[in-house]
Write a structure and sequence with these properties.
Elements (H helix, E strand, L loop, with lengths): L4 E4 L2 E10 L22 E9 L4 E10 L2 H10 L8 E16 L3 E17 L6 E11 L2 E11 L2 E9 L11 E11 H8 L5 H11 L10 H5 L3 E12 L2 E13 L2 E11 L2 E10 L5 E12 L7 H4 L2 E14 L3 H6 L2 E14 L3 H7 L6 E14 L2 E11 L2 E10 L4 E9 L16 E5 L1
Parallel strand pairs: 10-11
Antiparallel strand pairs: 1-2, 2-3, 3-4, 4-5, 5-6, 6-7, 7-8, 8-9, 9-10, 11-12, 12-13, 13-14, 14-15, 15-16, 16-17, 17-18, 18-19, 19-20, 20-21, 21-22
Length: 437
């Protein structure tokens, strides 16, 4: 549109200039009344001001485009590419100002509102669906207001804010507080697993790194992340584990993930966990969890088994593993833990009578308390010693069960206060039995 420059003493000003994308000459004529950015269609008003004596100035941009990718191409054509490691399509409304001083450089202030947009980010196999979000700048620092974004199998909202760090100070550059209704391990694998389109991922990563690497590694993306914050998930599914109301705090810095605190509801009880991960040179994971008053009947086991169980369990568990991919992670999974049981009931099998008689006996087994320890390695769980008490009787169990389902257990009946013999049944052969299957 028409350009009009004014000079008042040492101030050079350009009145708003209308720029339209794909429009006609009539679309860029200055209106009698200035239109708000929200009322524009594929157009923007540009205002310029320059202090000729103080070497300070500003450029204001107010407008709306239905294809923000066209605006990104224009910025790149002028040698000012904005997107590094990401691509954006969709509608954008902007009200921003670039202020600069010769000595201090320039800073952005303002906001860009995105709607009905798609955001592709290096490292993600699928684009995020941005129904509505806001990008904000204040004195050059960026923040994101996530109103509604669909990705990773859920709908997200929250905020991501850039921190101003003093020179030489090390710390998280970004703070985040995000909430989603649901997430699953399967969705995460689809979004960030090793199935990304190589050419697409390589192009975005090269853009992210400023074109300095012709063949960047995937870890280069994670290496640049420096964030700290909290995450809330309404429902988290990991294989057969279904956690509700998950709240976690943590940070990602220098290819290390530190989870300070996490809480969730599981199987009628609560879980408190801490987790750490190192992503270079080989991904390694370490999780420690404390479980309180978990309902045995709600454990992720076959229905024909859990419907016969009742009681509460508490305890601790630590799991470590390394590698990439489900198979390798399971193969190298190891850990240990301890469990305490209360008011346990097993319907359909009278364990004490079966051990005493040497043959299966139907009925119900009940124990008031119990405790034991277990270890995990080689794709199996080893119950080192589990002791259940009911009045004057004790039921002691030890053995192993594999991830495939096969097991071998030894059960021994003891009188209260008597310790389990080193060899099952050595002293009381009639009160010890073996179960395999």
């Amino acid at each position: 549109g028409p350009v009009r420059l004014l000079r008042e003493r040492n101030l050079l000003v350009a009145e708003p200039v209308r720029i339209a994308l794909g429009g006609t000459a009539r679309d860029v004529l200055a209106p009698r009344k200035r239109r708000m950015a929200a009322l524009m269609e594929n157009a923007a008003d540009i205002t310029y001001a320059q202090d000729l004596s103080g070497r300070a100035g500003s450029i204001s941009i107010e407008g709306q485009v239905q294809k923000v990718e066209e605006a990104l191409k224009i910025a790149a054509a002028f040698g000012r590419p904005i997107n590094h490691g990401w691509e954006l399509t969709g509608n954008a409304l902007a009200v921003t100002r670039w202020n600069w001083q010769e000595a201090g450089g320039g800073r952005w202030n303002g906001r860009v509102i995105l709607s009905k947009a798609k955001l592709a980010v290096a490292g993600l196999n699928q684009p995020l669906a941005v129904q509505e979000s806001t990008l904000n700048w204040k004195d050059g620092l960026r923040s994101v207001g996530v109103t509604k974004v669909n990705g990773f199998g859920g709908a997200w909202l929250g905020s991501i804010t850039e921190r101003k760090l003093a020179s030489g100070v090390d710390g998280p550059r970004w703070n985040f507080s995000l909430t989603t209704d649901r997430m699953s391990a399967a969705d995460l694998d689809r979004w960030v697993g090793p199935r990304a389109r190589p050419n697409w991922l390589r192009r975005l990563l090269s853009s992210l790194l400023g074109g300095s690497s012709s063949s960047p590694a995937a870890s280069d993306l994670v290496r640049q992340m420096n964030a700290d914050g909290d995450l809330s998930i309404g429902e988290l599914t990991i294989e057969k584990l279904k956690l509700a109301n998950v709240r976690a705090e943590g940070s990602l810095h220098d290819l290390q993930l530190e989870g300070r605190d996490a809480d969730a509801q599981w199987a009628g009880g609560t879980v408190h966990a801490a987790r750490n991960a190192v992503f270079s040179p080989l991904p390694k994971y370490d999780v420690t969890a404390k479980l309180e008053r978990v309902n045995l009947a709600q454990l992720p086991a076959p229905d024909q088994f859990t419907e016969r169980l009742a009681g509460l369990a508490s305890g601790t568990v630590r799991l470590v593993t390394e590698g990439v991919g489900r198979g390798e992670l399971l193969q190298k999974l190891a850990g240990d833990g301890a469990v305490q049981l209360n008011n346990v009931e097993l319907r359909g099998w009278d364990v004490n009578a079966s051990v005493a008689d040497g043959a299966p006996r139907t009925g119900t087994s009940r124990w008031t308390t119990g405790d034991g320890t277990f270890t995990m390695r080689n794709r199996g769980v080893s119950v080192d010693n589990l002791t259940l008490e009911s009045g004057r009787e004790q039921t002691s169990l030890q053995g192993t069960v594999s991830f495939a389902g096969g097991g071998h257990f030894e059960i021994e009946m003891l009188s209260a206060g008597k310790k389990r013999s080193p060899t099952v049944g050595a002293n009381e052969t009639a009160r010890a039995r073996t179960i395999t299957g």
